[in-house]
Amino acid sequence: IVRFTSPLTGADAVGIDDGEQVVELSGITTVGELLRLSSDELRDRCAGADGPAHPSGSVRRLAPVDGLMEVWAAGVTYRRSREARVIESERAADVYELVYDAERPELFFKSVAWKVSGDGDRIAVRADSEIDVPEPELGLVLNSAGEIAGYTVVDDVSSRTIEGVNPLYLPQAKIYLGACAVGPAIRPVWEVADPYALDITLTITRAGETVWDGKSSTSELNRRLDDLAGYLFRADTFPDGAVLATGTSLVPDLPFTLGDGDTVTIGIAEVGTLTTTVVRGLDAM
Ligand code: DO4
Ligand code: MG
């Protein structure tokens, strides 16, 4: 499922991309509208796509997040994330140790829809931070009933400098313009046989050279996906659905940091590849 600029009208559109062509879903203009449907209704709606068709490579994809959709994220759901945060936070290390094993997961708000970057867009590191990293994460696309409707790729771009000083600074480390990228598409839930067996890769290139790369798998996740979604919907409503990033398992060793002009490529098997370019500071976004 892709959100894109219609070459016919120039307006935002939603369609089904089979790799060769994108077929518009007539009567639907936002992903949020699709996420008001149940998973069964969504499946029927996708199978019946009958709008204008465009060659797959010819449409500009937009982040598949719009309307009233919100992006949320889970934290410390992989051992590697716990380890890296214990090292960087020193005196507050217990906070991360405790939440890794706690029944209630860490969930935090990440972005409103209109601020989300898509595939081919820019992401940003803060000008008041020294160590900044991408966080490649499997994103759950949740419908308004809280069901997993599909999967996407999320980059939970983060300032390690700011979070490392004090975990109470987490919103400043995690929520700012350019800190959230989602895309390039939504892979429907019925097309992914086992979401706990997906390879995740991260490649960071600088002036054409790879400066960091790594690989992990959702098999290392310390939580159940339905459980994370259940906590998000326990005491809140999402009329247009939500994206919930499920935590990172790839964290470069200190003192690696993203730099201005870096290219970040995140691949999740069966879900997609999200590529963005880093800029430094608000003025460059
Ligand atoms: O606990 C802070 C954030 C953790 C996080 O974003 C992650 O584990 O991916
Ligand atoms: Mg994260």
> Beta-strand level of the residues, as a percent range?
35-45%
The CATH homologous superfamily of the largest domain is termed: Fumarylacetoacetase-like, C-terminal domain
Q: Provide the number of structural domains.
A: 2
Helix content: 10-25%
The strand count comes to 18
Alpha-carbon distance between the two ends: 27 Å
Hetero groups bound?
Answer: 2,5-dioxopentanoic acid, magnesium ion
* Level-2 CATH architecture of the largest domain: Alpha-Beta Complex
Q: Number of helix segments? A: 7
Rounded mean pLDDT score: 96
Report the major sheet: 6 strands, mixed
Q: Which fold does the CATH topology of the largest domain refer to?
A: Fumarylacetoacetate hydrolase, domain 2
Shape, please?
A: globular
**What structural category arises from helix and sheet content?**
alpha+beta
CATH class category of the largest domain:
Alpha Beta
Spatial order of strands in the largest sheet: 7-6-16-10-11-13
Listing every helix as H and every strand as E from the N terminus to the C terminus, the arrangement reads: EEEHHEEEHHEEEEEEHHEEEHEEE
Rg, please? 18 Å
- Note poorly predicted spans: none
